[in-house]
Specification:
single chain; 247 residues; alpha/beta; six-stranded parallel sheet; four-stranded mixed sheet; 10 helices
């Protein structure tokens, strides 16, 4: 059985995203991911977690998860998650994601991360976007927002929102609101539902080219002498401010 599963795993790798751990698999299944293969070193323990933490999808996980010996498991993944669980899911189509970004009259903002430097931060931002019901998260630069480390950081919630990397100079449709220290106080700003919320890196902030495209610049209040907030923290504050204007 292990050999057959190993073959299925390797056949699914091209065009697939790694779901590292039980929670990533749980959220991917809950939000409709096309999971091609799921393995665990202790199937019984995984299904017990499902019954306790996610009874809504326990039956689906029961049908998906196959037990493999730990040695075989280690040969499939770059690291063994503490839950001893991993899966492969089909990567969503970039064209379908772009269509979501560019819908007219979007019901929620798109978060844009300009040239992010840390995959864990990208994953944390995706998790926030999913939790607040944002339309999605777009990145510019070299980091792949679907890298396994980013998906691990989001606990699989990439499948609960739209996530994609943009071409240089590209932005989703909508009024661009750039987070910038010289902008208007976030507490006094109403963020529209179709806003494109742009965040720069913690060290450099947004680029001058991006600032020039802003319909409005917005600042998060911060104590003097403090250099910056963590990127995900800033995104969370902006999305919370947006959510205050909604039911």
């Amino acid at each position: 059985m292990a050999t057959e599963i190993e073959q299925r795993w390797r056949a699914a790798v091209p065009g697939a995203v790694l779901l590292d751990g039980f929670h990533a698999l749980k959220h991917a299944v809950r939000f409709g991911a096309d999971v091609r293969v799921a393995v665990a070193t202790d199937r019984k323990a995984v299904l017990a977690m499902a019954e306790e933490l996610s009874p809504d999808i326990a039956a689906r996980l029961d049908a998906l998860v196959v037990e493999v010996p730990e040695a075989a498991f280690r040969g499939l993944v770059p690291r063994v998650h503490p839950t001893g669980t991993a899966a492969l899911a089909v990567l969503p189509s970039p064209e379908a994601t772009r269509e979501v970004f560019d819908r007219t009259a979007r019901p929620a903002p798109v978060v844009v991360l300009e040239n992010p430097r840390n995959l864990g931060n990208v994953g944390a931002v995706v998790r926030l976007a999913a939790g607040f019901g944002a339309t999605g998260v777009a990145t510019t630069g070299t980091l792949d927002p679907w890298h396994p480390n980013a998906v691990r950081g989001s606990a699989g919630l990439h499948f609960a929102t739209a996530v994609a990397r943009l071409a240089p100079g590209d932005l989703p449709a909508g009024p661009v609101h750039v987070l910038d220290p010289d902008g208007d106080d976030l507490r006094e700003v109403v963020l529209p539902d179709d806003a494109v919320l742009v965040f720069g890196s913690e060290r450099h902030g947004v680029s001058s080219a991006m600032r020039s495209r802003a319909a409005r610049r917005v600042a998060v209040p911060m104590r003097p002498g403090v250099s910056s907030f963590n990127l995900a923290t800033t995104v969370g504050m902006a999305l919370f401010r947006w959510s205050q204007g909604r039911p």
